[in-house]
Every structure is written in structure tokens, then in C-alpha cells.
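Backbones bend. To wit:
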Amino acid sequence: MATRRRIKVKTGYHHGNLRQDLVTAALAIINKQGPGALTLRAVAKRLGVSQTAPYRHFVGKESLLAAVAADGFATLLRETEETLAATEAEPVARYLAAAFSYVRFALAYPDHFRVMYNERPPEFSVGPVAESGRKAFQLFVGTIVDCQKTGRAAAGDPSLTAVKAWSYAHGLAALHLQRLLPRRLDDEAVRALTREIARFLNP
């Protein structure tokens, strides 16, 4: 069953990993109050550090949000790679597995997901956010190319097919996070919903 990851935040700062602690604290604030409530002052207060401490790592709220998004995209990429590594070689099965991994990620990491696909400041267009995002998308495109090579998908621009399928998977995740789908979706229910994206291979 896809379960949300609990955010654990220390009550005080006692070691040298302040940057990661700031990201974790930011996620806790987003979880309770939404991205709009996030400030460097708020994360400093939550960690019990001085108000200037976060500025050693982040120039402002946008760069902290970029770090949260980068963490999310890196996790999405890693989990998609792990899912594909455990999936049979049949191309359509791999395509469906990649889509399943995306929706499962959104349900397990809703706070990351909201930041990754919310309003995107310029900081999201470069560096780790952009790099991991592109890699995750290209991994999905690659499963479509493999389907085309074996005659399991129509010829054409695989990126266009990927965008259509991604829009469907993203919509499922967003609707669920807005509580417009059943409140509990186990892995089998997610797989059943994401199987519908097979239709985009041969529209």
C-alpha cells in the first residue's frame, strides 16, 4: 500500500548537517501549512537555530524550495530506476511500471510532489532540479521507444506520447491528493488505474 512518509524533525540542532535539516524542516512546514507558509525564519525557528543560520546554505525561500524539489526528483528517479530494475523485460510492462512508480511516489511523498509541480521559480530551471527532472522524463520516454521498436506502440514522437501518459498519471495523483479519489489506494488499485495509460501507446 502506498503510505505517506513521516517527516521527522529534531527539536534542536546538534550536528553539522544543517542543510538537510533545513530541507526536512521545510517539508514539515509544507505538510502542516502548505508551501505559502514557508520562510527561512520559520525553518530556523523549527530547528532552534539562529535566524541567520539558513542563509549559510540558501539565499532565500526559492532556493530552499529548489532543494526540496531536487530531493524529490532525485527520489523519484531512484525509485523509478529501482522499479524498472525489478520489472520484466517486456516493453509494455516496463512502460506501465514507470507510470505506476510515478503515481506511487506522489502518494508516498505528497509534500515533495506539491513543491515539484507547484509554481516553479527560476531556480527550478537549472542545477539538480532540472537535471533529475529531465532524467526521470527521459527514462519514461525510453520505455516508449522500446515499445515502438518492438511494434507495441505506434510510430511517432515518443516525447509526445510520454507527455500524454504523464498528464494522465499526474492527474490521478493530483486528484487523489485533493481527496477527489478514494482516500486509500493500495498498490493494486494504483496499478489498475495506471494500466489505463496503455491506450496512449496506440491512440
Summary: Residues 68-201 form a domain with the Tetracycline Repressor; domain 2 fold (CATH 1.10.357.10). Helices lie at 18-33, 40-47, 61-85, 91-108, 110-116, 127-149, 158-177, 187-194.
